[in-house]
Amino acid sequence: MNIPHRAGLENFPPYRQGKAPQAVDGLEAFKLSSNENPYPPLPSVVEAVTGAVSSINLYPEIAAEELRGAIASRWEVSPDNIALGAGSVEVASQIILAVSNPGDQVMFAWRSFEAYPLLATTAGAEPQPIALTGEGGHDLPAMAAAVTPKTRVIFLCNPNNPTGTVLKAAAVDSFISSVPEDVLIVLDEAYVHFNRDADTAVGIEMFRKYPNVAVLHTFSKAYGLAGLRLGYAIASPGLVTNLQKVAVPFGVTSLAQQAGLASLCAEDELQERIDVLVTERRRVHDALAAAGLPVLPSEANFLWLDSRGQTAALAAIFEDNALSVRVFPNEGIRITIGSPAANNRILDAARQAAALLAPQH
Ligand SMILES: Cc1ncc(COP(=O)(O)O)c(C=O)c1O
């Protein structure tokens, strides 16, 4: 006899992982579809993880006091303001579970991080996607106007995945002021380290200013720990307490805790790598723009091609160049900035694409 499953689950799309590149004779393949860091872990991080391996017969420390303390000092907040998760995607899930009742609404810009609608739906909440502006940014006035009495949490993704656009401080200030104070606003700053916009909204500043703001950070991107799964929220102590209640117990492993601590001690070294990626982002952006491709300015570790009807033709060129990129049919293509060799290959593909494309923008 078949066990009945939760109603409607057959209609839930699973999370789509970035594709692996296809092999092409004579070309090294590069995966540029998941916004991963091309650098291997720092030796000090490898050493910390290796040192912790001999005790993986024991459960991790659930309160993770040392790591929460270190993150708290980094941001000059209290450890009571820090909630951890197995990646910031798990913390986002905790937030929705802690804040919304079944049938409540979770708002986000669209297109944005693909997990938002999935996390909302699995929590029994209703996703409230609000279309991006024509320039790929959050339409904050439309978002403010769309708030209903059921809207419990609003994700603002800064810089936005996949478009790379930045939310300006003044715009976010007026948005927060125009939204009811009992709606939680989450500034998802997964790509914050790559953001060099002088006028950007800064999550920690918004958190200090407004009691209904929480910030999401991850060790996956700039710190290169995607495989270990570690992220955190900076939030009010009341919210942190409830996030811990809905978290999967022991979700943050002892290896992740040690790697996180070692990374916080190596921020200068990590910064050098981040700076290279930002320089590379600018180089690739400028070359794509010069080749006539519809690339948006980006403050993240990826670029967005606003390729619309030409998406399939462009995607085929990247594939033929042994590059996997994130393709959104008829919308656009997100390309992660990789190693200089991978980035040079993007430029090879761009030259081929330029020859093929008719001007459209
Ligand atoms: C905007 C945004 N937030 C959160 C995440 C989740 O990252 P992680 O769960 O690895 O911390 C991602 C990952 O791609 C992202 O793009």
Written description of the protein model:
This protein is α/β, with parallel strands linked by helices and 361 residues long. It folds into 2 domains: 17-41 and 268-356, Alpha-Beta Complex (Aspartate Aminotransferase, domain 1); 44-264, Aspartate Aminotransferase, domain 2, CATH 3.40.640.10. 38% of the residues lie in helices and 16% in strands. The strands form 2 sheets. The chain has a 7-stranded mixed beta sheet, with helices on both faces. A 4-stranded mixed beta sheet has the order 1-10-11-9. β3, α4 and β4 form a beta-alpha-beta unit. α10 (267-290) packs parallel to α12. The model has no long low-confidence stretch (mean pLDDT 96). Pyridoxal-5'-phosphate binds at residues 35, 87-89, 113, 157, 161, 188, 190, 218, 220, 226, 231.
Describe the structure concisely for a colleague:
The protein is α/β, with parallel strands linked by helices and 361 residues long. The protein is 38% helix and 16% strand. It starts with 29 loop residues before the first strand and ends in a 5-residue tail after the last helix.
Dominant shape: globular
Distance between the termini: 57 Å
What structural class do helix, strand and pairing data support?
Answer: alpha/beta
Helical residues, percent? 25-40%
**What is the CATH architecture annotation of the largest domain?**
3-Layer(aba) Sandwich
Classified in CATH, the superfamily of the largest domain is Type I PLP-dependent aspartate aminotransferase-like (Major domain)
In the CATH scheme, what's the topology name of the largest domain?
Aspartate Aminotransferase, domain 2
- Calculate Rg over CA atoms: 21 Å
Say which molecules are bound, naming each kind only once: pyridoxal-5'-phosphate
- The helix count comes to 12
Relative strand content: 15-25%
Q: In the residues, how many domains can be counted?
A: 2
* Poorly predicted residue ranges: none
**What is the count of β-strands?**
11
Q: What is the string of helix and strand elements?
A: EHHEHEHEHEHEHEEHHHEHEEH
